[in-house]
Amino acid sequence: MTSYLVTWEIDIEAKDEVEAAKEALEIMQDKDSEALCFRVSNYRVSNYRKTVWVNLLDPEREETI
After folding, report:
1. Of 9, 11, 1, 63, which is closest to residue 36 (Cα–Cα)?
2. 4 or 58: which leads in pLDDT
């Protein structure tokens, strides 16, 4: 099995870091949220790192970055 680093990014305006994190968590947990684009990186034996954008609204579309 391969290990992956999966990140999701969002810009949020809030009064402080904790409020920003709480807002992001709310958005992530909203079943109707369209925040479904992730940066996914894997590490191979040679430490070669492949990073792609994965859009779960369009799983056939994967962009290498």
Report:
1. 9
2. 4
Hey, what are 62's tokens?
């994967």
Instruction: Please write the tens of the pLDDT for every residue from 25-53.
Output: 999 999 898 888 899 988 765 666 788 88
- pTM for this entry: 0.66
Q: How confident is the model at residue 3 (pLDDT cuts 50, 70, 90)?
A: confident
Q: 10 Å Cβ neighbour count for 38?
A: 15
3-state secondary structure of 28: helix
Structural domain boundaries of the chain? 4-64
The residues pairing with 50 across neighbouring beta strands, listed in sequence order, are: 42
- State which amino acid sits at residue 48: Y
Q: Among 40, 61, 42, which residue's Cα sits nearest to residue 52?
A: 40
